[in-house]
Input
Amino acid sequence: MFFKSFTISIILFFAFTASVHAGITSEEARKVVEYYYTGKGGGGVFMKADYCKEIIKDGPDKNNCSNKAGQKNFSLDEEVYAWGSFLVPKGDEDTFYVEFKNMGITWQTSPLKVKEGFRYRTWTKQKFDKKGVWTITFKKIDKKKGESIVLKEFQVKVR
Output
């Protein structure tokens, strides 16, 4: 009986230890929470980007992309949402940009204004009015260096 209980305890201990290490560390979690509460003035942090045909309007996935980025081909005059998720410190705000290029020419640049939030989600919409390969680029301006930084880029074909 003791051996069985001891064995179960060891298995549970290793299962618990493995599950703790499967996520983020306590140090990583502490840094994120600390930045959210004390990082005002440090600006937003880009977390994730995607593109899709529609934004979910309600339910647990509200404000997320639907019909996610797996689609690489679009039709002429079809619309696309460029969607992003950001961490913005309490009391802070920031601006990121989405650039839509075709044939090496920027046809639209949209600012994404973000405000405080652990997972602030926002998007912009573009109609593909020209055939060819379009590049959707998420950027942030580095004011100290005076340049834009590419955060994420997608390419899609419009036929």
